[in-house]
Design brief:
This protein has 12 helices and 10 strands. By secondary structure, the chain is an alpha/beta fold. The longest helix is centred in the last third of the chain and has 17 residues.
């Protein structure tokens, strides 16, 4: 059995192309050659699902499904891939590695058509214990983590605190949760000035002009609730660069096929074999950890793409078949009348 599983994923220069071979009923051996991985044996259109390459991928996926966790880790290590994570994550990682190799001549995920950067944002806002429905949340920390999708590294970070104006005194619950003290926000700029600083920071990095980019959040609330409410409170229009974003919880759930209750930040990290780095509910630390998840997902073959947007003040879903478009060059929104 172990030899059979090993044959499913052997990579060697003298191997024959992937094809079914004799074996026990219901089982198939698979062999992967360098020639086959490069796509040289495929003559059909790569967008045509009748192309034999897709049958070969399906056969290999079946082999991967029958591997134990130790076998998966061994094969991932052989390909110099990350070996941490639960079994389902390891299977997905290995399947996507093979699929990416097979379809390299089709449309590389990290090719010219993909975003150059992803801006990860995770706001911290004023809050009270129990969050009564009448309480108006105000942003008190605006962090950005700039993820380079080509190097898969965090290239830069931005962080500024914000002075709340409607409820200027922080609750003890908020201070305890976020670690942001009254003294910090008292010395901070108000939201319009901080937003102007954010936009200037993004312009200096030529986002939306020289480089394409997308915003990314952990859930819908950062943009659809916190930023939306804050803009109304500050009497400024909603910024155009934040009207569309990647909700990584949706992307993670769809990619790894897990239910919504398994897409919380700490659970996503745990399932990917990682621990939280830093202080929970620090906006910057949360953003860095979200970026780590995004990096791992990109490494595993996920094409993170915009899946949510704001339209007329309402949260909308963006279809996965929509064209991949970057966010516009950031501009300071006008004040409301």
């Amino acid at each position: 059995m172990e030899e059979q599983k090993e044959n499913c994923l052997q990579v060697g220069r003298d191997e024959t192309p992937v094809r079914p071979t004799n074996g026990p009923p219901g089982r198939q051996h698979c062999r992967i050659s360098d020639q086959e991985i490069s796509g040289k044996n495929s003559t059909a259109n790569a967008n045509d699902f009748s192309d034999p390459v897709y049958k070969e991928i399906a056969i290999t996926n079946g082999c991967i499904n029958r591997m134990t966790r130790d076998e998966l880790r061994s094969k991932l290590a052989e390909f110099k891939l990350e070996t941490r994570g639960v079994k389902d994550v390891l299977k997905k990682r290995l399947k996507n590695y093979y699929k990416k190799q097979k379809l390299m001549q089709k449309e590389a995920i990290n090719g010219d058509s993909y975003y150059d950067y992803i801006c990860v944002v995770d706001f911290e806002a004023t809050c009270e214990e129990g969050n009564p429905p009448e309480f108006i949340h105000e942003i008190i920390e605006f962090p950005i983590v700039l993820l380079n999708t080509h190097t898969l590294e965090i290239e830069d970070t931005f962080q500024q605190y914000v002075k709340p104006e409607i409820n200027p005194k922080l609750s003890s619950f908020c201070i305890s949760l976020t670690g942001i003290t009254q003294d910090i926000v008292d010395k901070a700029d108000t939201f319009p000035q901080v937003l102007q600083n954010v936009i200037e920071w993004m312009r200096q990095r030529e986002l939306g002009t020289k480089y394409t980019y997308s915003m990314l959040t952990d859930g819908s609330w950062d943009m659809s609730k916190f930023l939306n409410i804050q803009c109304r409170s500050s009497r400024i229009k909603y910024p155009s660069f934040a009207k569309k974003w990647i909700n990584i919880r949706k992307s993670y759930g769809n990619f790894y096929k897990v239910p919504r209750n398994q897409t919380k930040l700490t659970i996503m990290l745990e399932k990917l074999g990682m621990n939280y780095d830093g202080r929970p509910h620090s906006g910057l630390d949360d953003s860095k950890n979200i970026a780590r998840i995004a990096i791992r997902m990109l490494q595993d073959g996920c094409e993170l793409r915009v899946n949510e947007r704001m339209h007329a003040g309402q949260l909308m879903t963006v279809s996965s078949s929509a064209p991949l478009e970057g966010a516009p060059a950031p501009q300071m929104p006008r004040y409301r009348n």
